[in-house]
Design a protein that fits this description.
alpha/beta
Amino acid sequence: MPILLKPAAWGAHLLMLVCVAIAFGMGMWQWSVWHNDRVDAQHTLVDADPVALASLMGGDSAFPGDKIGQPVTFTGSWIDADTMYVSHKRHQGHSGFWVVTPVRLGASAIPVVRGWSAHAAADPVTGRATVTGWLEPSEDTGAADVHPRDRVITSMRIASMTQHVSTDLYSGFVIAREVSTGASGLAKVGPTKQPDVSGFTGLRNLLYSLQWWVFIVLIVFIWWRWCQDQLHPPEPDPGAVEPVDNLTP
């Protein structure tokens, strides 16, 4: 029987497996803590107090890439004639449409997702409105718009939306969290993209998880070296002088 399969070696093998299992479990636990910390931080940002849209961007500004999902607020006038409907949007398992109406802010307008509807129709909306919602960048699903002249579009792609509106558009859009008018009869829509959190959020737990997985490598290496020593024990040095217990006079 190979020496590594003898009962005398079972304890070493079992010890290695137990240590690896503990280190792996601790690493996964620290990884989950890191992940949950970042998710909690994202939820905190999504539910944060809104800031003025004008403090982040204007009608001619590039989209601030580090502000995806940032809650914003602004007041402007609805442009009901330019209302659009984004197809293939799901809500509670049903396919329908986002109802999108631009809000004029000075010389430009920002598209606002008022809510979800099962049909490409919504109550008209006019007058001024105060909007609070999540700032989102232009998107593109890649789906072709086979009917470019109607009010139904395939994605919130700003470049395509400009063909359906009568004014310049911001380089992003807002998904309404609260609106003073315009949400009647529509289901609420949540943010599609979560805001970025700091790279240092939960960093300590991430490093702890990596540390435990490094321990696994060390444990397996020590066990492997022990196995090698058992299979190939060092040969005695022929030049070594054995000790003599009793000297003959």
